[in-house]
Specification:
The complex is a heterodimer of chains A (277) and B (325).
Chain A (H helix, E strand, L loop, with lengths): L5 H19 L1 H4 L33 H36 L2 H16 L2 H11 L4 H10 L3 H14 L3 H8 L4 H37 L11 H9 L7 H28 L1 H6 L3
Chain B lengths: L1 H28 L4 H5 L6 H11 L5 H13 L13 H37 L2 H16 L2 H15 L11 H6 L4 H35 L2 H8 L4 H39 L4 H10 L3 H29 L12
Helix pairs in contact in B: 1-4, 1-13, 5-9, 5-11, 6-9, 7-9, 7-11, 9-11, 10-11, 11-12, 11-13, 12-13
The chains are: A mainly alpha (277), B mainly alpha (325).
Chain lengths: 277, 325
């Protein structure tokens, strides 16, 4: 009972490592260039054929190569936007938790306001008004996803601000920024890491849907969501074109969620213990 | 009581004002000239300025804001750039369809989550909980739009049991009818998917809540009176465990609305989500802004309502200002 579910943590880490490896080594592992067009005879090859063995799409492009390169977009957008989320959420949360009361009320009021909007609609509104690109998607997903982290960090900071070591540091004349970075941040780092893993899955799902709508990374960049959309027109005669990228997304998101769950159980025994009656 | 209610009303009104302001700010503080995205690329400079004037984008931001807010408070959400119809009309047209979809999905959600949660709390079998956790995590990790697409492939294209999308069969549309059974057939896939995708989370939540109730004194008392375990579970523990779930309804709303956007897009369901996505493609920004703002308002109202109901059904909770004696 006291042993956290370590196997979940390991499974998630291994699955995510595989995805990261595929993304990093996409050029080495790909049997063909992801955007290399095939001739008429090499179009819509079924599973088991084509250079990578996973068939080809309407333009004769090798599906395996595109899947590998799609991992790059997904992970880059996912990790980039989560980094932004942590930065924004961390700054707002720590400022609210450690700063004066009026600042706390102001920042948390704003945070709660943003939380009332469905994230997808907020993202669509911003994407519509800016040029769709990989960078835009990173910014949009990051800018619409930091609120949960901010609340989490604020609660932690509030709990820590009256502890002796913080009071001591304050008494020694440490400024608020250095206090936050030197003394509070190390305390909340495990929590932050857990939140990051759990956000990563969400970010990748959101990226996939925006790409599916054509509002994500643009050609020649490969993205899994866009692959699903392209395959949609051949659902019946070439189902794998849509099915495989979906499985790739599921793999990566599941990896991130398993990792996050495992980390949470490990760092927060209360959350794990709650499940035991 | 009346005073607390009034205070709450005022609070909600201020909240809604802040929400509208936030939505407007997000739309207008987005980097770049909105006209770059909104205007057709072949428009000349004079045409661009004309469009800018028509959209009111040539005026200072505070004035734009005041005009928009004034309109919204009068029920005027502006006009669609695409078909020049009032945005409010478009919303009123699409809203019942989204309510039908989201409402059915939410019913499916609880039809699955309620028995599952009770079962898991009653059994306490570790493997059952693990299985549900696994399934829940899996569902949580699946891209919903992709799952919908696969559902269309299997149930509509391969098996031919259900329609692939839309709300009414083309034949009925041509005859101008809305046969309820036909709509129901179109509803099964999208509503089932939307409900299923979120059910595992609530089942788990209910289980935790039930286990807490089962450990309380009144359950002990009920057991001591010799009531059967089933009666204790269903009549005593469940009733109390359901109370906190009332607030969950308010919390589920953003996810449900966001999920509707995805599901309506994949299944071509002509609701508010679909309206928003179509408007994004048409760069019809008054529509997208209105849908976003209204969703935020709906979520806030839902939360306030849930709090209010919670205070009603649970005498231990009172509206702010009134402490239980």
């Amino acid at each position: 009972m006291n042993r956290p579910r370590l196997h979940v943590l390991h499974l998630g880490a291994a699955m995510l490592a595989a995805a990261v490896l595929a993304a990093l080594a996409a050029d080495l592992l790909s049997p063909a260039a992801p955007n290399a067009l095939g001739d008429a005879a090499s179009r819509l090859l079924p599973l088991g054929q084509g250079a990578g063995g996973l068939g080809t799409d309407v333009l004769g492009r090798d599906v395996l190569s595109r899947l590998l390169h799609g991992a790059r977009t997904s992970l880059l957008v996912g990790l980039g936007s989560v980094a932004l989320t942590l930065l924004l959420g961390g700054a707002v949360g720590l400022a609210a938790g450690l700063g004066p009361r009026w600042l706390d009320r102001l920042l948390m009021g704003f945070t709660d306001l943003l939380l009332a909007f469905p994230r997808l609609l907020l993202a669509l509104l911003i994407v519509m008004l800016s040029e769709p690109s990989r960078l835009t998607v990173i910014l949009v997903i990051g800018a619409t996803g930091w609120m949960g982290t901010a609340r989490l960090l604020r609660a932690e900071a509030l709990g820590l601000r009256e502890r002796e070591f913080v009071l001591a540091a304050r008494g020694l004349g440490l400024g608020p920024v250095r206090l936050a970075l030197r003394h509070i941040l190390p305390h909340v780092a495990p929590l932050l890491l857990t939140a990051a893993a759990l956000r990563l899955g969400n970010a990748i799902l959101l990226e996939a849907f925006l790409s599916y709508l054509g509002l994500g990374a643009q050609e020649p960049l490969v993205s899994w969501g866009a692959m699903i959309e392209h395959g949609r027109r051949h659902l019946l005669d070439a189902w794998w074109l849509s099915a495989l990228p979906g499985l790739a997304i599921t793999w990566t998101v599941l990896a991130a969620n398993l990792l996050g769950d495992g980390l949470r159980d490990r760092w927060d025994p209360r959350a794990a213990g709650k499940e035991a009656p | 009581m009346a005073r607390a209610f009034l205070r709450r009303l005022l609070h909600t009104a201020l909240l809604i004002l802040a929400l509208l302001t936030t939505a407007f700010a997000v739309a207008h503080l987005a980097p770049g000239d909105p006209l770059d995205r909104l205007a057709p690329t072949d428009l000349d400079a004079a045409g661009r300025e004309a469009l800018r004037g028509r959209l009111g984008l040539d005026r200072p931001l505070p004035e734009q804001y005041a005009r928009w807010l004034g309109g919204v408070l009068h029920g005027d959400l502006g006009r669609s750039l695409e078909n020049h119809r009032p945005v409010a009309d478009l919303l009123v047209e699409a809203l019942p369809r989204t309510l039908l979809l989201a409402g059915t999905a939410y019913a499916v959600h609880w039809l699955l989550a309620l028995p599952l949660g009770v079962l898991l709390a009653a059994r306490r079998g570790a493997w059952a909980v693990r299985l549900l956790d696994g399934v829940g995590l899996m569902l949580y990790s699946l891209p919903m739009f992709w799952l919908g697409l696969m559902g269309i492939l299997i149930f509509a294209r391969l098996l031919g049991w259900l329609p692939a999308g839309g709300m009414i069969s083309p034949a009925a549309v041509l005859e101008g009818r809305t046969p309820p059974l036909d709509v129901l057939r179109h509803l099964i896939l999208p509503a089932g998917l939307l409900g299923l995708a979120t059910a595992a989370g609530s089942a788990r939540y209910l289980r935790t809540s039930l286990l807490e109730a089962l450990g309380s004194d009144y359950v002990l008392a009920a057991r001591a009176r010799g009531l059967s375990e089933r009666a204790v579970l269903w009549r005593h523990a469940l009733r109390n465990a359901l109370l906190p779930l009332v607030t969950l309804v308010g919390l589920d709303l953003p996810a449900l609305l966001g999920g509707s956007v995805v599901v309506e897009t994949v299944f071509a369901w002509p609701g508010v989500g679909r309206l928003a996505v179509d408007a994004v493609f048409a760069r019809d920004y008054p529509v997208v802004l209105a849908v976003t703002a209204c969703s935020g308002v709906a979520v806030v109202l839902g939360n306030q309502l849930a709090d209010l109901i919670y205070g009603r059904v649970d005498p231990r909770v009172r509206l702010d200002g009134e402490r239980p004696r």
